[in-house]
Amino acid sequence: MIHKCLFPVAGYGTRFLPATKSSPKEMLPIVNKPLIEYGVEEAVAAGLTRIGFVTGRGKRAIEDHFDKNYELEDQIRGTGKEDLISGTRALIDQCEFSYTRQKEMMGLGHAILTGETLIGDEPFAVVLADDLCIAEGDGVLTQMVKLFKQFRCSIVAVEEVPDADIHRYGVVAGEPLKDGVYRITEMIEKPSREEAPSNLGIIGRYILTPDIFEVLRNTSPGKNGELQITDALRQQALDGCVLAYRFSGRRFDCGSIDGFVDATNFCYQRFYKNGQ
Ligand code: UTP
At what angle do helices 35-45 and 82-94 cross, to 10 degrees? Predict the structure, then answer.
């Protein structure tokens, strides 16, 4: 049904300079595991094992991370350290990885359109790995895949965001369909507080139907002169149906310093210190 997950990872990560000057933001570790690996784990847990990356300059470390490293594995064999990379090895064995390059950073919508060659004509998920999502039961993508099976249309994950931060999000308004699920009636990218149609901001988890590519091709650049996925989804909502889903779980904006530190403390306590 849904087999593919696209990771747009071409952005410059300017909020994290100088760390991101020559290293990808997505390789920043939360404790001892890079952000991108948490994202791929979430995709695999949802049954999505065909992983596509839209990369850019300076992102080769991501390709190397999801590849075997015989020399290293040989070095640590029998030292008790194999366990430290067994999770990564399991992902490498389970997934098929493919890559394409976004030549110019023209926005998230443009990055997704660049990924069309990796996706083709089927529904797919999109994960922005700098949004780290931790849920108690099913992961956020698993929750969304279940919802997709029921409604078969594009879905965006949303959460309530404080008024002071609303200008940093795509913001939606909609009619409630069932608990935590809304049919979107309005969507605005990075609105002012006055323009915002609600306090529900889109976070970095999407399920998209493949007609989004044609809509993106016909969408003009929006906020900041970039091709915005929010504008294309707004059109898809007007033409048919797009859902907003209030997921269960916690999300950390690891593209910001505060979110990154919060995520590090949370994961240290939860996965590392307590060995869970
Ligand atoms: P962000 O704006 O959060 O990431 O884009 P950024 O540009 O890397 O970070 P800052 O704001 O400069 O610190 C959201 C996601 O979309 C991807 C980014 O890699 C990130 O995962 N993206 C954004 C692209 O792949 N291409 C683009 O042209 C824009």
Answer: 50
Ligand 1 pocket: which of 54, 104, 108, 216 to mutate (most atoms <8 Å of CB)? 108
How remote is the CA of residue 106 from the centroid of ligand 1, in Å?
Answer: 10
> What are the boundaries of each domain within the chain?
4-272
Q: For tokens 């300079």, what's the residue?
A: 17
Q: Is the CB of 123 under 6 A from ligand 1?
A: no
Please give the single-letter amino acid code of residue 237.
A
Determine the topology of domain 4-272 in CATH.
Spore Coat Polysaccharide Biosynthesis Protein SpsA; Chain A (3.90.550)
- This model's pTM is above 0.90: yes
pLDDT in tens, 222-236: 988 999 999 999 999
Q: What is the DSSP string of 112-169?
A: HHHTHHHH-SS-EEEE-TTEEEE-SSS-HHHHHHHHHHHH-SEEEEEEE--GGGGGGS
